Structure formats: structure tokens, C-alpha cells
């Protein structure tokens, strides 16, 4: 089976990652020619529940890249179990 995901936003890419981890062949199509055309998603805030949902569908390498490039909150706002 092959699944086509229309839209490379947060939801589309999360879906594609989850499907790929489940062994499903997936292709993602995006209308915008470049991420620089529209500034959507810039400084996107995710709650703890959103971060948990997003990272749960990521392959380990992508999860590591997510944590390596994510903004680090002030110490009083750090999440339990977040890589330091």
C-alpha cells in the first residue's frame, strides 16, 4: 500500500513519519515551492501533549534532531525526561 499525504505542515509530516515507521510507503506533496515562501510555523509553540504526540511518531534519528534544534526553555520550565 502507498499513502499520499497532501501538505507538508506539522500534521502532514507527523502523519508521514508515523506511516513510515509502520512500514507503509508514503509520499508527501506540498503546494509551496519553498519553506521560505510562507512563514507559517515560525516559532511554533507546542504543549507537552503536542511534543509527546509529535516525538512518538518520529524515528530515533529525527527525534534526536528535533531535540538538538528545539529551543531550550528556562530551567524552571524544563520537561521531565527531556534530553539536556
TrEMBL record:
UniProt domain FAD-binding: residue ranges: 2-44
Keywords assigned: FAD, Flavoprotein, Monooxygenase, Oxidoreductase
Coiled coil: none
GO molecular function, one term: monooxygenase activity
Pfam families the UniProt entry points to: FAD_binding_3 (PF01494)
Top-rank taxon, per record: Bacteria
Protein name in UniProt: FAD-dependent monooxygenase
